[in-house]
Amino acid sequence: MDLAPEELQFLALPEILRESISIPKRSPKTFYLITLTLIFPLSFAILAHSLFTHPILAQLQSPYADPSQITHEWTLLLVFQFCYLIFLFAFSLLSTAAVVFTVASLYTSKAVSFSSTISAIPRVFKRLFITFLYVTLLMFAYNFVFVISLFLLVIAVDTDNSLLLFFSIVVILLLFLVVHVYITALWHLASVVSVLEPVYGYAAMKKSYELLKGRAKYAAILVCGYLVICGIIGGVFSRVVVHGGDSYGVFGRIVVGGLLVGVLVIVNLVGLLVQSVFYYVCKSYHHQGIDKSALHDHLGGYLGEYVPLKSSIQMENLDV
C-alpha cells in the first residue's frame, strides 16, 4: 500500500481489491510460503471434508447397514468431525495471524520474512484465540435465535398460520442476510484489530464495531461476495468430485478437485489480504491516525525486539 493514510478512506471496493492483490508482489517468497504451509492445508481440508464424510454418511443412511456397525460408524464420524473442526479452527487463526502480521510489516516498511512471521504467530495466536472465544459466544446467541425461528416456522407450517409463517420467514432471512453477515464482518475486522492494536477479546470486538460504522455496506458486500464464491466452489466440488463418480471418472474428478482447491486457495488468500487492507480503510475513514512507528514497535514486540525508550524523563533518570 503506497497510498498515504488519509487517502485510504477514498478507496472504493474495486480499488480495495486491487490494492490487496498487489501486496504479495512486495514479498512474493514470504506469501508463497504462507500460502503453501497454512492457506493450502486449510483450503484442502474445507473441500476434502465432504469427500471423507460422504462414505460414512452413506453407510449410516443405508437400509442394509449392519446394526452392529452403526455405533462404530457414528463414533468414527464424531471423531473425524472433532478433528476437522480443531484443524479448521487452528489453521484459520494461523493463516489470519500470518497474513495480517506480514501486511502490517510491509505497511510499516519493516523487514519481512517467513521466519519472522512464524516467530510472531505464537503471541498473535493467543490474542486471536481470546477474540474468537467472544465471537463464539455471540454466534451461540445468534444460532439460538435462529433455531427458535426455525422451530416457529415448523409450527406455522403445521398449524397453517400465515401470520406466524410470514414472521418466521422474515426473521430467518434477516438473521441470515443481515446478522450473520454483520457478525462475520465484525469477527474478521476484530481479528485484525487483535493483531495490530493492544486490545483483544471484547475490546477488539467493540473496536471493530466502531470501525465498521460508515463502512458496514462495504463490509457486507465483501463478506457476501466471499461466501457466494466459496458456496459455488463447494457446490461444484460436491457435485463433480464427491457425487460424480459415475459421470466424470477418476481422472476427471482428480483434475476438477485439484483445480477447485487451487481456486479456493487464491480466494482465501485474497480474502485475508482484503481483510487487512479494509482495516486501514476503516481507520482512515474515521480519521484515526495510523502511527507507523508505533505500529512498527508493536509488531516488534511480538518478536521480542528491543523497543527504544521515547520518554525524555526516563532518559534523564538514566543519565543521573
From TrEMBL:
Keywords, ordered alphabetically: Membrane, Transmembrane, Transmembrane helix
Superkingdom of origin: Eukaryota
Transmembrane spans: 31-54, 74-107, 128-157, 163-196, 217-242, 254-282
PANTHER family for the chain: OS01G0800300 PROTEIN, OS08G0107100 PROTEIN-RELATED
Protein name in the entry: Polyadenylate-binding protein 1-B-binding protein
Organism encoding this protein: Lupinus angustifolius
